[in-house]
Design a protein that fits this description.
By secondary structure, this protein is an alpha+beta fold. Helices cover 68% and strands 8% of the residues.
């Protein structure tokens, strides 16, 4: 009987405040969708970092005849065969080095033509203008400074470059987008909480006669508050479910179909469905608990029971 009464009160409350309940559902759905999107964006950045940092190398560019006339680093002339052998030997001795690959000027020219063959400057570049280099793969990409410290400024070396710097701009941009999503999510969350509190208060005010009678007959505070809390929890649950639909639809239409980013951007390692689905239970739980806690706090102050 008590369970039936609580359920009937929930139905009455939802019907009386249908417009505000709808507003709560929409606000919760949007805020939780942004919350889930921020989590997925963070996972995407970490996935891309793990994927690309494992592939990038430290490049040690060697002096050419052209470099010898353009500054102090190569003032002693182009790199010699002995210097190249010594550099390679020193690299292979280092414990942090996993692999060393030598790229000749001809190979560098070939790769340049493959990437920039259609540009105007590519037509005037000759193989002797391309630098020889050592491409060094590290066991830990974070140890780039060890290589830079050991080889920067040595005879025959023009520069030491960490290819991770090329990716940092992209990662920083993605982090900025993520921060913007989090800020917008917090704003929507505050709006949703305000709507939940106001909806609960309006519902409690419209049923103040019933709650007064329940207090007179000795009903406990928890029993009086339960219908209101469950109304808010139900609205939050529906909002959380809609948020999950938005996240799944976003992954489906943005990456797999619709914009089809997975095919248009083959170099980007997009997060898989397992990562997306793993976030959905958290979104549902927050959608259920957040309105319940907000309603409980509002009722303690408003009903004073």
């Amino acid at each position: 009987m008590r369970a039936q009464f609580v359920l009937s009160e929930i139905g009455v409350g939802l019907r009386r405040n249908l417009t505000m309940t709808f507003a709560v559902i929409v606000s919760v759905a949007l805020s939780l969708a942004l919350f889930g999107g921020a989590l997925l964006m963070r996972e995407q950045v970490e996935t891309m970092k793990d994927y690309w940092y494992d592939k990038v190398n430290v490049s040690i560019y060697l002096c050419t005849k052209t470099d010898a006339t353009n500054g102090d680093k190569c003032s002693k002339g182009a790199v010699t065969s002995e210097q190249k052998k010594q550099i390679e030997a020193d690299l292979k001795k280092m414990a942090i080095v996993e692999n060393v690959y030598y790229e000749s000027a001809e190979e560098a020219f070939k790769h340049y033509k493959e990437q920039y063959g259609d540009t105007a400057i590519a037509s005037v570049i000759t193989p002797d203008q391309m630098p020889e280099s050592f491409r060094v793969k590290l066991k830990d990409p974070e140890k780039y400074k060890v290589i830079a410290t050991a080889f920067e400024g040595r005879d025959g070396i023009e520069s030491v470059q960490d290819q991770r710097n090329i990716l940092e701009t992209l990662f920083n941009m993605m982090r900025s987008v993520n921060y913007a999503a989090v800020a917008l999510m917090l704003l929507m969350l505050v709006i949703a909480l305000m709507l939940i509190i106001n909806t609960v208060r309006v519902s409690a005010f419209s049923r103040r006669r019933e709650t007064g009678i329940m207090r007179l007959v000795g009903a406990s505070s928890f029993y009086i508050q339960m219908p209101f809390i469950m109304e808010a929890a139900f609205s939050g649950l529906i909002g959380g479910a809609f948020a999950c639909v938005l996240l799944v639809a976003g992954r489906y239409f943005l990456v797999d179909h619709g914009l089809n980013l997975a095919e248009q951007m083959p170099l980007v390692n997009f997060i898989g469905w397992d990562v997306v689905l793993a976030q959905l239970p958290l979104v549902i739980v927050i959608g259920l608990l957040m309105p319940s806690v907000a309603a409980f706090i509002a009722l303690r102050k408003y009903l004073k029971v």
